[in-house]
Every structure is written in structure tokens, then in C-alpha cells.
Amino acid sequence: MKIKIDHVHSFHHIIGEKFIFLQQKTDIMHRFFPILTTFLTFCFIAILAMPVHASSHENAPVMETIVVSTPPTGWPPFIIPPKNKENDTGIMMEIMDTITNRIGYHMNTVHFPEKRSQMLLAEGRVDAYAKAKEWVKNPSLYSWTDPIVTTTDVLVFLKKSPIQFQTPKDLSGLNIGIVYGFSYPTLDPLFDKAIIKCHTSKCTKNLLLMVQRGHIHAAATNRHVAEWIIKNNSELSTADFAYSTTPIGSAPYRFAFSKNRNWTPFIKSFNRELASMKRNGEFEKIMSRYR
User: Fold this and answer.
1) Rounded to an integer, what distance in angstroms lies between the CA atom of residue 30 and that of residue 21?
2) Mean pLDDT for back-to-back runs of 10 residues, the chain (291 residues)
3) Cis ω on the peptide bond leading into residue 81 (within 30° of 0)?
4) Which CATH fold would you assign to the domain 151-250?
5) Domain boundaries, the chain
6) How far is CA 285 from the centre of its chain?
7) Both ends of the chain: CA-CA distance in Å?
8) Is there a cis peptide before residue 34, judged by omega within 30 degrees of 0?
9) With a threshold of 0.90, does the pTM exceed it?
């Protein structure tokens, strides 16, 4: 029994020591907790008061994007569809890209057929489209840049079957190919009256193939476009084709902008840069790359 009592006394002694130790720890924490809290609060306030240094990337101005609609098959050398590049190239697109970058914008191209592009432009779902006022039924629906380059349409036919004419009426009874959705002011009235037989295709390359195979007498298109396509397609040969000396029509090629947003300040800046490029020879350098 004595041994048991000693064990109990020993156990009480140990428990008492543990209790005293924990109480001392608690007293220490009570004394230092307010100090720790004050220190952490001070650090938090100091961090909030520090100036925020943004990275150079964050400080860089954000370039607004201009969405330019282009035909899926392009219209080379004025508009050339991309292969492994982000955007279209060509005379018109290179000029647009150069100028937009200079005045704080970024160009992005999307691809839609002719009529679809005009509809999206009128609705403001795309920002710009390369066109001539003379090729649009209602040019007042859009805002226009100054002319960039004058484009002249001619007839392209086989050398072995030349076509001579003075006015479009002289083409009576012929089968003439045009790009679907494009407007031809001098030919459209004759197409409507069936004086000239109209054949459409989605792109100029197909029209030239139709001429080469004898399906149509001639294709109405821009000479530079025809020459570029023939030069860059193994299916076509420059030796097979000839061009009319009489033009079908001529019009200044420019950019049309949607009126759903006020593009007037941008167009003014664009026109100034364009005029400067024409004066200092930069415009001619771009043109020379596509001849």
C-alpha cells in the first residue's frame, strides 16, 4: 500500500510540474502576443504603402485592333491570302499594316466572300474592307480613305482568239466571266439585258482557267491581278493570254470603313501617313515588290 501511495504522490508531482510549465508558457504568450500583433500590423501597412512598380510590358500602350475583311481567295497582288503568316499580305494590306502600326493600331484580317464582307461592314461586325466606291451600289453607307492605287480592268482572252472593241456594247453576244459578287459598272447594264452573257466564278484564277479551256471568250479583271495569278500558277501560261488595249473600267482602290463607329479621326491620320509615304518614296518601294 505504501508503494502505491508513493506512486500516486509521484504522479501528482509530475502533473503539477507540467501544469506549472504550461502556465509559464501561457503567461509568456500573453505578454508577447500584443507585441507580435502590433509588429505584423505595421508590416502590413508598410507593404500597402509601398509604390507598385509595373513591368515595362504592363506600361506599354495597348494597341487597338482594326479588323479588315478580305476575300478568302485574295486579289493578288493587292490582297494575297496568308500561307504560314497571321495576316494577308499584298499591296493594300502592307500599306494598311504599315500605317496602322505607326498610329497605334494593330491590323487583323478575317476572310469572307465579297457580299458577306459588305454586309458585315455595314453592320459594324468588321471595321474595314478594300474596295472602290465605284464598285459599290451604296457607297454612302461607308466612310472612305483617300485613294491608294488606281485599278484598271481589262479583258483577258486567248492570244489565238483576240477580241477588239471600242465600247462594251461591241462585246454583244460574247461570254464574259466575272468574279461573283463583284460589281462592273460598265458591264452590269449589258449583263442585265443579256446583251453580254455573264458567267461567274468565285475567283480570278478560275476565270482564267475557263478562258484557257475555251469555256468563255474572256474574263474581265484587273491586268495586274491576272498577270500575278498567271505568273504564280503552273496551270496557266503567260504565252496563252493577251489583254485588251481598251479598258473595261478604272477606279481608285481604297479602304471602306464601317459607319457604326466613328472612324473619322483614324481615317484622317491614315490619309496623312499615306500622303507622306507617297512623297518620300516608301509607297513606290511597296509597289515595286509586287511587280
Assistant:
1) 14
2) 44 46 48 49 43 38 85 93 85 97 95 93 96 91 97 97 96 96 92 97 96 98 94 95 96 97 97 98 94 82
3) no
4) D-Maltodextrin-Binding Protein; domain 2 (3.40.190)
5) 62-150+251-288, 151-250
6) 22
7) 118
8) no
9) no
